[in-house]
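Help needed: design a sequence for this.
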């Protein structure tokens, strides 16, 4: 069975990051981060969970870069995210719904390069293209049967990457905000609104919609 060599993948990302530093003002200079999970998820995972890119204006030296060896970064006892801790709590509620241990989720960033916001990501088109290249390889090798993405940009890119079809939009009990559910060859894709803004995983008004959205995903 084909497997990913973590060191080769890590070196590829680092080499790209180092090379693009020569682009001057257009370079991403705030570091990079790929996985919010231990690297064993690259050898097999039932669930993948992808956000757009690592946020913030600096890389915390206590946090992982290629992976998170101490466990899932979404656990507060593993990492402290300060104002972003709501996202950690929402992700943990998601994993409980899926009945999967956080450390076993293929969790990471579609684009590994850090920026304070998506709008501030430098050399955006090429950075996204590089992320698509990396994750095309990862998803094709790991083959998680459930892929969940987070936020409008990530949802659009991941659904195209997976060639998802039969996509349905479902309101999630938060005004006109919707989530998406579709199928790809070998599995199910779910696109969520960004959980740092829309805390639907623990919202009573969203419970019925989530039951429909996640039908058949628990194990």
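Sure. Designed sequence:
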């Amino acid at each position: 069975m084909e497997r990913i060599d973590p060191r080769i993948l890590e070196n590829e990302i680092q080499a790209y990051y180092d090379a693009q530093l020569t682009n001057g003002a257009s370079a991403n200079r705030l570091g990079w981060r790929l996985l919010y999970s231990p690297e064993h998820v690259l050898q097999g995972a039932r669930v993948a969970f992808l956000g757009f890119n690592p946020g913030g204006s600096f890389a915390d030296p206590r946090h992982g870069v290629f992976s998170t060896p101490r466990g899932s970064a979404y656990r507060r006892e593993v990492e402290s995210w300060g104002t972003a801790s709501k996202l950690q709590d929402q992700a943990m509620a998601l994993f409980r719904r899926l009945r999967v241990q956080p450390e076993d989720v293929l969790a990471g960033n579609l684009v590994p390069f850090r920026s304070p916001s998506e709008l501030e990501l430098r050399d955006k088109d090429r950075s996204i293209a590089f992320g698509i290249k990396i994750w095309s390889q990862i998803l094709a090798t790991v083959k998680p049967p459930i892929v969940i993405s987070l936020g409008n940009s990530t949802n659009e890119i991941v659904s195209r990457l997976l060639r998802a079809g039969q996509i349905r939009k479902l309101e999630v009990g938060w005004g006109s905000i919707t989530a998406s559910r579709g199928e790809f060859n070998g599995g199910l894709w779910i696109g969520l609104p960004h959980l740092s803004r829309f805390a639907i995983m623990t919202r009573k008004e969203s419970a019925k919609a989530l039951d429909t959205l996640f039908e058949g995903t628990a194990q």
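Residues 124-142 form the longest helix (19 residues).
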